[in-house]
Amino acid sequence: MLVLGIESTCDETASAVVNNGTTILSNIISSQIELHQKYGGVVPELACRRHVDVIIPVIDEALKEANKQLSDIDLIAVAYGPGLIGALLIGLNTAKALSLALNKPFIGINHTEAHLYAAIMSYPHPVTFPCIGAVLSGGHTSLVLIKEIGQYELISQTVDDAVGEAFDKVAKMLDLPYPGGPQIEELAKKGDAKRFNFKSGFVKGHPLDFSFSGLKTAVLYALKGQNIQNENIVVISEELKQDISASFQQAALTDIVHKALAAATKYQCKTLIFGGGVTNNRRLRTLFDEARQEFTYIWPSMELTLDNAAMIAGLAYHQFIRKGHGDSLDLEPLARIPFTH
Description:
Layout: E1 2-7, E2 12-19, E3 23-31, H1 33-37, H2 44-66, E4 75-81, H3 85-102, E5 106-110, H4 111-122, E6 131-136, E7 141-148, E8 151-157, H5 163-173, H6 180-188, H7 213-224, H8 238-266, E9 271-275, H9 282-291, E10 296-298, H10 310-323
Parallel strand pairs: 1-4, 4-5, 6-9, 9-10
Antiparallel strand pairs: 1-2, 2-3, 6-7, 7-8
């Protein structure tokens, strides 16, 4: 089954052709990093305009690289949420139009769920379920119990910032370019992670939930002192940037490791699956390896860590087989989707 995937949840416009859920024939991504860099984050209106401009050329390029025609496609897959509503509408309406024009079924995919499937696509061996899934990105931080592909139980999530969002906001405090995650990771290699005793938040009554807002505030205090209302420009030395980056990164990532492994122990799972852009962080992978070597860790390949359409098309194959039919054309985009099935 050849599936054409479309992804437009935020600031990447992507399309891919995937055969039978695993064989990636093409995976084209049009990034908007340069467009949003001067604003220090994604500007939704600008993102939508760019999606409109490039979505058809990106689909054409994906078909060309896969050496396929639209008539060869069996199923259209598109991320219908969570994400920016305007951006989602562009991808979703494009998929609906193709479905109508080609008389082929289309299916809406949960973008967050697809991030976890990206790791499964990258893994050369069969995955033993149940296992723990950790979604770690700029928009999402959650732990789920994966009973099988398509069946999940939400274990925990962030009550404020996603971990990738926290990295970006701390990077902005340090006057680093967007996106902040890679910048902080690079600086942290030269910094002293013990200089600042930063800690991630504890959510009363929900010990596996995440909270990075207080950690972010602690960084602000470290930079400006207790008078955070001070409007004076703070000159940040390179050494201070390195030490804050190292200390912040260590606190955020250690919290993720601790809670993910606690969830694995609680649910008696020996395998952890990771998805999202923060999984690119090499320090995160090292911390997991150092913490518990008896677990199997399944990470997405580098090209599947960020938003992409291959993971959308790959997961759609399984969803379609399980449901036996596509979705109705009245499917609406959703800014938020509960991670339960």
